[in-house]
């Protein structure tokens, strides 16, 4: 791909054709990614090391931690961010290959419809991620996790495990839910903006 295509692609990703889309990019790229990258590591970075069960043995701790965390929150949220970016990136790659200027996207029905479809996909992906997060992590992290260690052939099938910094993790969970809701609201507002521009209610940029 030529440098011009790459330049058009990067400009499209950083400066979408709608005002709300540009705000979404700013929110997504700065606040959400910063929150996950910096604070997420601080909250979850050493969780596995401080997760302890009774009896406090390495094999029990590892077994119960894998049961407690089928997937680590940082990995889940990183995958969520990447997957949600795919529809928009695909559209802007298409626009770059077709040499479509950002200011012309909303002027033609096909391009506007294609872009709106990518926004719909973002909403669907965010909704699926929201549901999966509920299934995996719930809304609250308890201080005690009851682990089933029957597979280890222990005398007691259920053992108590201490979850470190459970309050911080609960706050972080609620924040990530909130970010997902804000992103969905922005996507819905962007679709509304596109519709208004197509109907002539709002003037084009």
Secondary structure elements and their pairing?
Blueprint: H1 3-14, H2 19-44, H3 47-50, E1 52-53, H4 58-68, H5 73-97, H6 109-137, E2 144-148, E3 158-162, H7 166-199
Antiparallel strand pairs: 1-3, 2-3
Describe, in plain words, how this protein is organized in 3D.
The chain is mainly alpha-helical. The protein has one domain: de novo design (two linked rop proteins) (Up-down Bundle), CATH 1.20.1440. 69% of the residues lie in helices and 6% in strands. It is built from seven helices and three strands; from the N terminus they run H-H-H-E-H-H-H-E-E-H. It has a three-stranded antiparallel β-sheet with strand order 1-3-2. Helix 2 (19-44) runs antiparallel to helix 7 (166-199). The radius of gyration is 22 Å and the shape is elongated. The two termini are 29 Å apart. The model has no long low-confidence stretch (mean pLDDT 81).
Number of domains: 1
Rg, please? 22 Å
CATH architecture: Up-down Bundle
Gap between N and C termini: 29 Å
- Number of DSSP-assigned strands: 3
Name of the CATH class: Mainly Alpha
- Give the uncertain stretches in residue-range form: none
Lateral arrangement of strands in the main beta sheet: 1-3-2
How much of the sequence lies in strands comes to 5-15%
Helix content: 55-70%
Q: Number of helix segments? A: 7
How would you classify the quaternary structure?
A: single chain
Structural class, from secondary structure content? mainly alpha
Global mean pLDDT: 81
CATH fold group: de novo design (two linked rop proteins)
- Tell me the major beta sheet: 3 strands, antiparallel
The CATH superfamily bears the name Gap junction channel protein cysteine-rich domain
Instruction: Give the overall silhouette.
Output: elongated
What is the succession of H and E elements?
A: HHHEHHHEEH
Subunit structure: A connexon is composed of a hexamer of connexins.
Main location: membrane
Protein name: Gap junction epsilon-1 protein
Keywords: Cell membrane, Disulfide bond, Membrane, Transmembrane, Transmembrane helix, Transport
């Amino acid at each position: 791909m030529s440098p011009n295509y790459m330049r058009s692609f990067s400009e499209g990703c950083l400066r979408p054709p709608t005002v709300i889309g540009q705000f979404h990019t700013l929110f997504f790229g700065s606040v959400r990614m910063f929150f996950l990258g910096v604070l997420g590591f601080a909250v979850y970075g050493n969780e596995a090391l401080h997760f302890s069960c009774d009896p406090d043995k390495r094999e029990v701790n590892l077994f119960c931690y894998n049961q407690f965390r089928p997937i680590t929150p940082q990995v889940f949220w990183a995958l969520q961010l990447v997957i949600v970016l795919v529809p928009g990136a695909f559209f802007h790659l298409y626009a770059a290959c077709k040499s479509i200027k950002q200011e012309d996207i909303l002027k033609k029905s096909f391009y506007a419809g294609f872009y709106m479809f990518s926004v719909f996909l973002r909403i669907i992906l965010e909704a699926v991620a929201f549901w999966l997060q509920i299934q995996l992590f719930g809304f609250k992290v308890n201080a005690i996790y009851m682990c089933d260690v029957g597979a280890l052939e222990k005398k007691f099938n259920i053992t108590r495990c201490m979850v470190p910094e459970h309050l911080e993790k609960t706050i972080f969970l609620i924040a990530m839910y909130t970010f997902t809701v804000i992103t969905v609201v922005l996507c819905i507002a962007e679709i509304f903006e596109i519709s208004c521009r197509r109907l002539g209610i709002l003037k084009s940029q």
